[in-house]
Design a protein that fits this description.
426 residues, mainly alpha, 17 helices, globular
Length: 426
């Protein structure tokens, strides 16, 4: 089935998808790693935020065509590089889903400790529920995204508000960790914050279900990424100004502790709920992207034809179910202590997969970008991706190559099978 005009969304929904895709559960624990770096952490946020904006700008240049990033990469480099980008994007989306589902369950256990015994089944239930919501169509998924995005930003704004209240009352703030500002420390901070600001690419997945996609997709990506980068910089720094460096470093929930310092235990439970909603909303955006990516690759003949099937409203239910089944499988793997390390490794591998989308996408944007200023921004984006590959390490990059080889094998097998069936039909 093709595009259905009855199932399209506009800028508010797409802005929520971008913001909701970027803000997951990681930001709420990241201050633990950043606190010892002092003001280097703030500089790191600026560096990674600037890099993410350059990537968003480059991918937005491709999205302005209104046909999806994979189609535009294919125009510039051919079908195989376009598939590699889409495959890496897809792997990053469906493998991160289980982590988000588990994070949402774990956050709820902070409210009621009895939930701790049911984290795995609850995570599975979250995946099933959100897959069902997405099966109702992009409008239902979009409404869910707007709601969860509105809730998840509350604790981020709350810690900023507390800092302003302290300043207004003339109360002293905690000093930042006495870590010298250096290139090495800034690079460490930038590496830690790098993947916390990615996820904006999810806006490019449902391109055929967006009204006036040529305008809305780029605008949503740039506005959403800018908004989150600034919010992360201010909120993360605020936590370090409200709690001592040692308190942040030893805290399992630094945002909750910062809120508790002003408003007590009730604020901690409210923050835990918001963290759960944050992970839940990010999972919703990931499921939406997974379904659309699976559908797009199947439509191009890169995956079995079954996953190109849609309901009358254009919803790719079978594609959504595939990603959900894979995600649920990883959740059960993670429930065993023996395979917990495997799950962490798969997530790292998926992040490398996303870098292939960024690298090929920015390279394609560079070929079609005119104007010195625009080209400089795209070149910075390319350099930023190469820096990220370097930071990922040799082992992850070698396994990333295996990930791509697996995708190309699946693509070849699918196309050979289709060719044989066509030959038999004639």
């Amino acid at each position: 089935m093709g595009k259905d005009a009855g199932q399209t969304v506009g800028l508010p929904t797409m802005f929520s998808i971008v913001v909701g895709s970027i803000i997951g559960a990681g930001i709420f624990v990241l201050p633990v790693s950043l606190a010892p770096l002092g003001w280097n952490a703030a500089i790191g946020w600026i560096v990674s935020g600037s890099g993410a904006l350059c990537l968003a700008f480059a991918l937005a240049k491709l999205a302005r065509g209104g046909h999806g990033i994979q189609a535009h990469i294919a125009e510039k480099f051919g079908a195989i590089p376009a598939f590699i980008a889409a495959w890496g994007f897809w792997c990053g989306a469906w493998t991160s889903g289980p982590l988000l589902a588990l994070a949402a369950s774990a956050a709820l256990s902070r409210i009621d400790p009895q939930i701790d015994a049911f984290i795995t089944p609850l995570a599975v239930a979250f995946v099933i529920i959100l897959t069902a919501v997405n099966a109702l169509g992009i409008r239902a998924a979009g409404r869910m995204q707007v709601l969860t995005t509105a809730i998840k930003i509350i604790p981020l704004f709350a810690v900023i508000l507390i800092v302003l209240l302290h300043v207004g009352r003339g109360e002293p703030l905690q000093p930042m960790a006495a870590s010298p500002i250096s290139l090495d420390n800034i690079a460490t901070a930038a590496a830690l914050t790098l993947f916390a600001i990615t996820g904006f690419e999810n806006a490019t997945a449902p391109v055929d279900k967006i009204g006036n996609a040529k305008r809305i997709v780029p605008l949503a990506m740039l506005l959403g990424t800018t908004f989150v980068a600034l919010l992360y910089l201010l909120s993360s720094t605020s936590v370090s100004l409200l709690l001592s460096s040692s308190a942040v470093s030893s805290s399992p929930a630094p945002f909750a502790d910062a809120l508790a310092s002003e408003w007590g235990e009730t604020a901690v439970q409210a923050a835990a709920f918001c963290v759960a909603v944050s992970a839940f909303g990010c999972l919703n955006a990931g499921i939406l992207a997974c379904g659309e990516l699976t559908y797009a690759m199947a439509l191009k003949g890169d995956l079995p034809k079954l996953f190109a099937h849609t309901r009358k409203d254009g919803t790719p239910v079978y594609a959504q179910c595939l990603s959900a089944a894979l995600g649920i499988g990883l959740i059960f793997l993670n429930s065993s202590r023996d395979t917990a390390n495997l799950f962490t490794f798969i997530i790292r591998l998926a992040l490398v997969g996303n870098l292939y989308l960024y690298l090929i996408g920015t390279a394609a944007a560079l070929r079609s970008t005119k104007g010195a200023a625009s080209r400089i921004l795209v070149v910075v984006g390319v350099a930023f991706v190469l820096f990220a590959f370097y930071g990922a390490g040799l082992e992850a990059n070698l396994w990333g190559l295996l990930l791509i080889a697996t995708g190309l094998t699946v693509r070849t097998a699918t196309r050979v099978t289709r060719s044989r069936r066509l030959a038999q039909a004639f």
